[in-house]
Design a protein that fits this description.
Elements (H helix, E strand, L loop, with lengths): L1 H16 L4 E4 L4 E3 H23 L7 H22 L3 H21 L12 H23 L1 H7 L9 H51 L3 H6 L1 H40 L4
Antiparallel strand pairs: 1-2
Helix pairs in contact: 1-7, 2-4, 3-4, 3-9, 4-9, 5-6, 5-7, 5-9, 7-9
Length: 265
């Protein structure tokens, strides 16, 4: 029971560590650890892009340049051209920025001792709000404000059903930034809690052996090996999730841009 009680306490402490805490100032007017690492990710992003642009030549060479080039082309072909369509070129800088910024944030959060900016709902909400403003702006720019609002109801639906459908579409439109923010936040937050939990379990089983070496303690520490193996597997999975979540967020942004600019629904 003591072991279970301690495990419960450790996990509760782990969860509390992921709560936003002010680094400078307070929670109302200040900088939390998530905001801090969000800024760190922004600086790293700028450095990576500056080095990439400087080293990029007509024929890219080197692991770094080719790696970044591959990701840029991936966003260009698979997301911008593949989803947005004809007018992809003007939206590509925004989509690429969103993708790389989220990806770097997610990867930074996988470094021990660091937190992902995307692990706080406030940070993901800010990203989602920027995306929402972006595609609504281009929808209004393409159709006009009234035209964009009218376009939310599909053509060919008669009155009064078109009013009912329009209300549903407006509600769906307002839900988009909420779902974008929550999806990214939940995946990053939950993944780190799971990894932390397995690390705690591995530590609890190995602790007696570290304090005093004996055959009995060595036998009791064997489950730690299993927990560590599972932890490493989860870590690899989280690396994949970090990429997938950046991709999903960017694809959904592209889909919303395409819908906003589409001629008639």
């Amino acid at each position: 029971m003591d072991a279970f009680a301690r495990l419960s306490d450790e996990i509760q402490e782990l969860v509390s560590e992921f709560s936003s805490a002010p680094v400078v100032g307070n929670l109302t007017f200040g900088l939390t650890q998530y905001s801090f690492f969000l800024l760190v990710a922004a600086v790293v992003f700028c450095i990576i892009m500056a080095i990439f642009v400087k080293k990029q030549k007509l024929v890219p060479h080197g692991f770094f340049v080719n790696g970044v080039e591959y990701l840029v082309e991936y966003v260009e072909n698979d997301v911008a051209k593949g989803v947005v369509g004809t007018g992809w070129r003007k939206h590509f800088p925004f989509l690429a920025t969103i993708f790389f910024f989220i990806l770097i944030n997610n990867f930074i959060g996988l470094i021990p001792g660091m937190k992902p900016g995307t692990g706080a709902i406030g940070c993901t909400a800010a990203l989602a709000l920027v995306t929402f403003i972006y595609f609504v702006y281009y929808g209004c720019k393409k159709h006009g404000v009234i035209g964009y609002l009218k376009s939310l109801a599909p053509a060919g639906v008669s009155f009064p059903m078109n009013v009912f459908v329009w209300i549903i579409e407006v509600f769906s439109l307002l839900l988009r930034p909420i779902t974008l923010a929550i999806r990214l936040f939940c995946n990053m937050f939950a993944g780190h809690i799971v990894m932390g939990s397995f690390a705690i379990m591995a530590t609890l089983f190995a602790e007696p052996l570290l304090e005093h070496f004996s055959a009995m303690n060595a036998l009791g520490a064997l489950p730690s090996i299993a927990w560590l193996v599972i932890l490493l597997i989860i870590y690899v999975v989280e690396l994949i999730v970090a990429f997938v979540q950046a991709y999903v967020f960017t694809v959904l942004a592209a889909v919303y841009i395409q819908i906003a600019e589409a001629e008639g629904h």
